[in-house]
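Tutorial handout. Part one gives the primary structure; part two gives the three-dimensional structure as tokens.
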Amino acid sequence: MAASSTHQADDRAPRAAREPAAPAGPGGSGPRMPPAFLQAVAALEGVEPRREVRLAPLPPPRRLAPYAHALSASVRAGEEELADGRFVLLHEPAGEESWQGVFRVVTLARADLEPELATDPLLPEVAWSWLTEALDAHGLARRAAGGTVTRAGSHFFGGLADRPARAELELRASWTPLEAAGAGGHLLAWCELLAQCAGLPPETGGPAVTALPRRRGPQPG
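Part two.
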């Protein structure tokens, strides 16, 4: 799966992003970067999610904020990719009114579903609860959270009629973390959401989460 663009609600660039910005991400000029941003990036780089979730660096967006750090993520079971997504941390040292803070997390999570599950009327609410419950389980304070849950189905006809119907869940969410040092916890909670979207059972000893029956992916034996 190829991850698409960041959350639409945050496509409006902050004030300082409209001016020439310092290099985004740790690959730029280190001394020019705010200590709070460097602390947040270090926290992200220290995250070790469950083994099925694989993180990789992405080129950070240049127009959303003066400083940004981006990661891609995929959930795999053997050779099969069950879900993918993107996690972006934005930083505006002067603060941004719509964020209600100086940092903003912008995320995208996508996963295939069993076609019959895509019509479940509880799907949007349950999918959103996976995110809020994961954040709450880690005790992560945040402000101005918002997002969308989208489900789409495809049926094939004519020369493509031999293909099975498929459905996809897409969750876009953004929120404002209150502390730079806590950025790693926000990434870890989001990785748990992505694993939940992929249908992986909770890890032993992990927090209980709202479940949807018939989720795609490996189930407990």
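Part three, for discussion. Helices lie at 35-45, 123-137, 183-197. The first helix runs from residue 35 to 45.
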